[in-house]
Amino acid sequence: MTYVVIQAGPKGLTNTEKIKGKKVGFAEVLLHTHGTKECKKRLNDGEISANDYDKLEFVTDRSKRSYVSYMKKLENKYGNTDCDDMELWESLHPECQGRQLFGV
Predict the structure, then answer these.
(1) Which domain of life does the UniProt lineage start with (predicted)?
(2) How far is CA 58 from the centre of its chain?
(3) 20 domain residue, yes or no
(4) pTM of this prediction?
(5) Which of 14, 27, 42, 49 is surrounded by the most beta carbons within 10 Å?
């Protein structure tokens, strides 16, 4: 698993891993740090899944667009969304070249 530092800092990643009880990837960290409180509760309760794009709620439109784009590109490239790909994530945000990437 690749370790990343998210906008919330290393503490946010550690907290996400503690909540999930396992190592987490970019998509899970983005959901945990940019999803609304209600959305996270519904995910944790199993009412919705991480692939229910139309039901997921994020704090900003940009975070939702980034999440959905990343998941769809993962699915197109690998046939599933159970993996991470930093180069794919970077390709979604060319405006961040040389700076901290959005969401990670």
Answers:
(1) Eukaryota
(2) 11
(3) yes
(4) 0.69
(5) 27
